Amino acid sequence: MSSKTITASRGATFAAACRVNQAVTAEAERRALQWMALRAPQWVTSDQLTALGLGAQVGAGMCYALARYDRRMLLPGIVCLGLNWLGDSMDGTLARVRQQQRPRYGFYVDHMVDLFGAIALMGGLGCSGFVHWETAAALLVAFLLLSSESYLATYTLSRFQMSQGVFGPTEIRILLAIGNVALMRNPYCTIFGRKLLLFDVGGVIAAVCMFAMATVVTARHAVELFRKEPLP
């Protein structure tokens, strides 16, 4: 996909970045979103979907926090994750289908909403008792680091990386939903004879992987930019 230059109201130009999504579910997700967007009622707007995505992610965080007292709250948490996917993934597709793109506004609002939502989700996890606060904080920092790198790369390389390898936001939601089902049965696992919180183990692995990805991607993009802008 080539970058598209959009003329702003004051005569400035904005280059819409090429979107790259190589996640496992990317193609199936694209088709499903296109199908739903074409059939969405006219009263449904992209802004409403963005608000739905944020509200659902905040709701998922609240469900995790309440699951500390009643583990059954993990089930509505799965519903919230699904609604978050619908709102967060379909808002842009709906705008494109209806030819109502606002690339600067959409990019800015959508990703600020993602950041606030991630804070709410990780905060809820930290309150749940299913994961230690240190693990939840590490996950949040790793997510913010990867997000920052992605946004900077979008500006400097005109390439918006929506996934890292085969993992994207949809895969993360699926893993969280599966984790919720596992927590309903038993919040602990045994590794090398030690009883550990299941989400602590998964969280540490995820945080390490995200930090590693951020390091590798930063190095690769720095080299690419260095080559594009050599010293005289």
Description:
68% of the residues lie in helices and 9% in strands. The relative contact order is 0.13. A hairpin with a 5-residue loop joins strand 1 (4-7) and strand 2. The chain has seven helices and six strands; from the N terminus they run E-E-E-H-H-H-H-H-E-H-E-E-H. The chain is mainly α and 232 residues long. The strands form three sheets. A two-stranded antiparallel ribbon has the order 1-2. The chain has a two-stranded parallel sheet with strand order 3-4. It has one domain (4-228): Up-down Bundle (Four Helix Bundle (Hemerythrin (Met), subunit A)), CATH 1.20.120.1760. It has helices at 26-39, 46-66, 74-97, 103-128, 133-157, 169-185, 198-228, and strands at 4-7, 13-16, 18-20, 159-161, 188-191, 194-197. The longest helix is centred in the last third of the chain and has 31 residues, at 198-228.
Order of adjacent strands in the largest pleated sheet: 1-2
CATH superfamily: CDP-alcohol phosphotransferase transmembrane (TM) domain
Average per-residue pLDDT, rounded, comes to: 92
Number of strands: 6
Key terms for this structure?
232 residues, two-stranded antiparallel sheet, two-stranded parallel sheet, Four Helix Bundle (Hemerythrin (Met), subunit A), mainly alpha
